[in-house]
Amino acid sequence: MLIDTLMLPENTLIESDVCIVGAGAAGITLARELRGQPYKICLLESGGLDFDEVAQSLYQGANVGVPYFPLSESRARYFGGSTNLWGGTCRPLDDIDFEYRSWGSAK
């Protein structure tokens, strides 16, 4: 069931046992895995089923640190998430992806 919360009365409460935030590849996969379990599941997406400039404008900001694409071009706020931008194609890893980081080391 799809519910557009913009169409619900103010202060409407949606109850669930599990709330998955983000209807991108991971969120949809997790929701599908939990399907059929004895849980009420809510898959929460900030956008709608289609691209919307208002939802996408929530990504306004600047990337800092390692250079990367602008947030508005590398993220998408609607059902399917950023997979809508890259079409499920995975790009090869860069050298920086293999650099040691102290915060990621196993102890």
Counted beta strands? 2
What low-confidence regions span 5 or more consecutive residues with pLDDT below 50? none
Distance N to C terminus: 44 Å
Number of helices: 4
**C-alpha-based Rg, rounded:** 17 Å
Quickly give the structural class: alpha+beta
Please, could you describe this protein's structure?
The protein is α+β, with helices and mostly antiparallel strands and about 110 residues long. The chain has one domain (about 5-105). Helices cover about 20% and strands about 5% of the residues. The chain has helices at about 25-35, 55, 70-75, 85, and strands at about 20, 40-45. It has a two-stranded parallel sheet. Strand 1, helix 1 (about 25-35) and strand 2 form a beta-alpha-beta unit. The protein is globular and about 45 Å long. The termini are far apart.
Can you give me a brief rundown of this structure?
This protein is α+β, with helices and mostly antiparallel strands and 107 residues long.
